[in-house]
Amino acid sequence: MNKTTKWILIGTGVLIVLLIVLSKTGVFGKAEGIKVTTETVKKRTIVELVNASGKVYPEIEVKISPDISGEITELYVKEGDTVKTGQILGRIYADIYSLQRDQAASILAQSQAQIANSQAQVANQTAALQALKASLEQAQKTFDMQKKLFDDKVISKNEFNIAEAGLKTAQANYNAAREGIRSIEANVQSAKANAQSSRASLERANKDLSRTAIIAPMDGIISLMSVKKGERVVGSNMMAGTEMMRVADMSTFEVRVDVGENDVPKVKVGDKATITIDAYNDRKFSGIVTQVASSNNGAASTSLNASTSTDATQYKVYIRILPESYKDLQAKNPIPFRPGMSATADIETETRENVLSVPINAVTTRDRDDSTANNGGGSKEEVAVRNSDVSEVVVFVLQHDQTVKKVKVSTSIQDINYIEITEG
User: Is there a contact between 241 and 287 (Cβ–Cβ < 8 Å)?
Assistant: First the structure.
């Protein structure tokens, strides 16, 4: 072994010894401790929020559908136009309804003419009946006189028979005239019934004809136009017909959001909300809950697809955007929002003041120290029951000696950053 090799071996040995000594003394190689942050437990105001997304809509929007079927012959408005109550917005082909109106009017006129004719006949027959009544009374007097003379053997049997025949003829003529009047009066009643039916048909025809004009039900703006001139629409009094257009009151708006089944029990009418609209993402708008749906979205079809649907159950919540929160925008644009704009709402479901709270990140779940879930054997079901009760909610509290202590706590509502501690 030469001298150079010898010194290399000696130096290597010294270096190894030095590394061992430094490691033992903790100069290097010591594991770095876990870095943590601390915060003092304080009493704060906690506002519980439910966050949900949805769309902006006019608070009042009316769908316009026809009451009768036919072809659209005229459209007098377009999307975005301002309309007034009673304004004609369009027309449906009316010729068939005009024909029905004319036919009903003709039948009514015939019925009224029949009534007038029958009433004139009744008047004439009544006058004739009075004359026949006078003849009957005269024939009765003649018969009475001739009978007395015949009984006194003053006149012959033939003369008496003539008087008796005259009375019978007068009575028959009177009875026939009276029955004729009754028949004519029955015809009058029948004609009146026909006239009433014809009048109802005419009113119905006039109403159908008037329905060929599509009328604005309210003041507002045409927010949606769904049809074009020349298209056919279906109308019915029994069900909703073809949607032709919508008229909306653009002075008030609402956000319709979908809230999950776990959060919707917390939401109630009157809750305040802070709204963010994508078109104005640099500002917040104030809102208030006006309605919470009692049935979930698509409830009608849920039962049909219950075995296959995996979608989370959602409930519609309606939030009015308070006008004072966007009044400044209306100075530049009278209609600052458009139907269908995307929006997000933070609904304030509960507020608690001066409650003990800690940061949400400070609350965690740990296994209980006295857990015996995996001890004692037993079936899988018994072990599962024990495992369901082996964890607890805790926070770690910094002691004066810079050590930490695990403390079991009970929690309540929370906001974005803090959670209420109710026990612990």
Answer: no
Q: How far is CA 234 from CA 211, 225, 373, 423, in A?
A: 13, 16, 68, 65
Q: Which helix (H) or strand (E) holds 203?
A: helix 157-210
Residue 301 exposed, middle or buried by CB count within 10 Å (0-12, 13-18, 19+): exposed
What tokens appear for 246 in the block?
């919508």
Amino acid letter for position 403: T
Query: How many domains does the chain contain in total?
Result: 1
Asked if 271 contacts 348 with a C-beta cutoff of 8 angstroms, the reply is yes
User: Helices 157-210 and 95-151 sit at what angle, rounded to 10 degrees?
Assistant: 170
| In a domain? residue 389 | no
**In the structure, what pLDDT confidence band is assigned to residue 29 with cuts at 50, 70 and 90?**
low
**Which amino acid is present at 143?**
F
Task: Kindly state the average pLDDT of the residues 355-379.
Answer: 67
Residue 382: pLDDT above 80?
no
pLDDT of 8 above 80 = no
pLDDT at 281: 86
DSSP secondary structure of 222-291: EEEE---TT-EE---SSS-----EEEEEEEEEEEEEEEETTTGGG--TT-EEEEEEGGGTTS-EEEEEEE
pLDDT score for 167: 84
Lowest mean pLDDT among 43-52, 243-252, 314-323: 43-52
Residue 175 lies in a domain: yes
Question: Mean pLDDT, to the nearest integer, of 282-299?
Answer: 89
Which residues constitute the domain of residue 147?
A: 96-210
What count of other Cβ atoms lies within 10 Å of the Cβ of residue 46? 22
Question: Is residue 204 a part of any domain in this protein?
Answer: yes
CATH of the domain at 187: 1.10.287.620
DSSP string, 83-119: E-TT-EEEEE--HHHHHHHHHHHHHHHHHHHHHHHHH
